[in-house]
């Protein structure tokens, strides 16, 4: 059986050698690079299963290594772990936003090192399994489409990316360059009113697409997308979607149906804001979340996000949730809401 191959890119010889020794004892095959340029060359030559890379290095730093490898089809999907001398939040966020999968803070021990690598490798296998399942679902969605092979290829060529809670995927006004497919977790989209209030326009979970409206409506995203729960996403560039639309009308038809569903949901939201009482609006929001999280009775959401979805003040949200709890409609503990009586909430909504 072929050994798992790991590439270490680190200019400090002591750290590089000791890390390599630990990994070889754990039965990994290890390649070493003393600078970023050499690391890129070795990554292209061997296509390792995982890459450990220092950030501050001569000739080419870790960000440059990640940038170059992420642009190549053969290296873009390799799990990438930064190793850094200090846990600087700005450095970490920059690396994650560029596509890094994890980071280790020096000095790290053998347990931390092996755990990080095993976690990344296991996650890659899970992603492959999830991806295979989602391709089957996409096949069902596009079973009459002659563009299915091209669509599958488009997703297959893109890396599944991980996003942390509260991380912004794109801002309102950014160039609308991508359509996203949710693999796991959840994402919210919001718009800001003229008086600075946030209104939530959508919540997306596994198997949902978002970013579609902006592709039809213009060159810029019409809302801000932010992660509600740690999420994994797959994305396809706008140019690819445009080509599929123009070449395969049945593919376009499927996305138009998704868009129409979003429009209907927004119309219902406007009616609720205009005519529903605050209790009725909150019941509607809770039931929508109950359905969005695949009918689980327990989900986590902040008062701020509930206020944004329902279009009301945070203080009003707190009061209504307290009332619902006293009426045994829900239970709330440490930000998690448990639906206790779905039927009564539905009656209240209606």
Structure notes:
With 350 residues, the chain is an alpha/beta fold. Helix content is 49%, strand content 23%. It is built from 13 helices and 14 strands. It has helices spanning 13-25, 36-46, 62-70, 89-98, 110-141, 148-156, 212-217, 238-247, 249-275, 278-292, 303-310, 314-326, 342-349; strands at 5-9, 29-33, 50-54, 80-84, 102-105, 161-163, 168-170, 178-192, 198-204, 209-210, 224-237, 298-300, 330-333, 336-339. Strands 6, 7, 8, 9, 10 and 11 form a six-stranded antiparallel sheet that branches. Strands 2-1-3-4-5 form a five-stranded parallel sheet, with helices on both faces. A three-stranded antiparallel sheet has the order 12-14-13. Helix 8 crosses helix 9 (249-275) and helix 11 packs across helix 12. The longest helix has 32 residues, at 110-141. The chain is globular. It starts with a strand and ends with a helix.
How would you concisely characterize the structure shown here?
With 350 residues, the protein is α/β, with parallel strands linked by helices. The chain has helices at 13-25, 36-46, 62-70, 89-98, 110-141, 148-156, 212-217, 238-247, 249-275, 278-292, 303-310, 314-326, 342-349; strands at residues 5-9, 29-33, 50-54, 80-84, 102-105, 161-163, 168-170, 178-192, 198-204, 209-210, 224-237, 298-300, 330-333, 336-339.
């Amino acid at each position: 059986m072929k050994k798992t191959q790991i590439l270490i890119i680190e200019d400090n010889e002591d750290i590089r050698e000791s890390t390599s020794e630990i990994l070889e004892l754990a039965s990994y095959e290890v390649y070493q690079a003393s600078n970023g340029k050499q690391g890129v060359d070795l990554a292209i030559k061997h296509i390792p299963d995982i890459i450990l890379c220092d950030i501050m290095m001569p000739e080419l730093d870790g960000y440059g290594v990640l940038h170059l490898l992420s642009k190549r089809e053969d290296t873009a999907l390799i799990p990438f772990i930064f190793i850094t001398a200090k846990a600087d939040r700005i450095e970490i966020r920059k690396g994650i936003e560029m596509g890094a999968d994890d980071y280790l803070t020096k000095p790290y021990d053998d347990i931390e090192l092996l755990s990080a690598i095993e976690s990344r490798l296991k996650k890659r296998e899970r992603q492959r399994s999830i991806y295979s399942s989602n391709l089957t679902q996409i096949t069902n969605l596009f079973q009459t489409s002659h563009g299915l092979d091209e669509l599958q290829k488009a997703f297959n060529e893109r890396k599944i990316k991980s996003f942390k809670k509260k991380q912004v995927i794109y801002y309102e006004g950014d160039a609308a360059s991508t359509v996203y497919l949710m693999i796991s977790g959840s994402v919210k989209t919001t718009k800001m009113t003229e008086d600075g209030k946030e209104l939530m326009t959508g919540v997306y979970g596994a198997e949902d697409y978002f970013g579609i409206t902006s592709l039809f409506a213009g060159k810029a995203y019409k809302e801000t997308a932010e992660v509600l729960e740690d999420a994994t996403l797959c994305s396809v560039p706008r140019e690819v979607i445009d080509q599929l639309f123009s070449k395969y009308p049945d593919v376009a038809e499927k996305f138009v149906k998704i868009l129409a569903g979003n429009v209907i949901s927004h119309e219902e939201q406007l009616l609720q804001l205009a005519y529903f009482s605050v209790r009725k609006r909150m019941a509607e929001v809770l039931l929508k979340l109950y359905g969005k999280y695949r009918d689980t009775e327990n989900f986590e959401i902040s008062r701020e996000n509930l206020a944004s979805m329902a279009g009301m003040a945070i203080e009003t949200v707190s009061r209504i949730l307290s009332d619902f709890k006293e009426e045994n409609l829900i239970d709330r503990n440490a930000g998690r809401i448990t639906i206790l009586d779905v039927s009564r909430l539905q009656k209240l909504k209606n």
